[in-house]
Amino acid sequence: MKKLLMIGVATALVLTGCTKGPESGKRYENSVLEGVNSRYNEKFVVVDRLEQLEGDQYQPLVVAPERDANLQFFAANSWGTPSGAPFPSRSVWDQYADGIFYTYAPDLYEKHLGFKPDYSYFVEDLRYGAEDGYSKANEYTIRGVNVENLKQISEGLHEVIAGLIPHFPPNYQYSNEQFFIPIQFDIPGDSDPMYYYTVSIGSTKSPESFDIYNSLKTSYESHVMEQKKKEVGNSGGAN
Fold this sequence. Notes:
Radius of gyration: 20 Å
Number of helices: 6
Strand order of the largest sheet: 1-5-4-3-2
Shape: globular
Oligomer: single chain
Distance between the termini: 49 Å
Order of helices and strands: EHEEEEHHHEHEEH
Number of strands: 8
Helix content: 25-40%
Largest sheet: 5 strands, antiparallel
């Protein structure tokens, strides 16, 4: 059974009611739009309606801000009991942050990082699929990052984020909605050399290259240290 995939980030949840409400149709679509309108303080429109599959609580929608018809992302109602709450409630979840990244990152990657991801946000693997959303976004992974190219990668990332910021919601000033940029370190023997650089869509400017460099360097060195510990442990065990 396929389920709608939540990629990369915890999706935005907006409490909209204490009854389950309609699962599809005009009233349902209006409730989803009201949720995302309120969340980001801008107007959205429904541009597509996905098939409601077995097990779906509500029909998944594709929505876009009125200001940018190209920036399309998934949104739907959700029904459940929030942590610590005594009763279930209806919320709206959305993937606005992911929509921004997967829509506009490819050209920016090509310009500033030297490669262009093949995957689109709306290909089958990203729309539906596996439990691990990160693996489905692997075309966007910046690979082969090591101590020799950290500076160059940091400068490229700065430009990529700067190019994404004009597409961020103009009236949203919070830091809790984010997308992750996947980075793979080049560390021989490391079975999990991944790092996810976090970007908030409430940002108004790109972090400085030096700050990005420090984040990458700290994570890289941590991975190197952990790998050395494993190698020492394996060596000791062999003796």
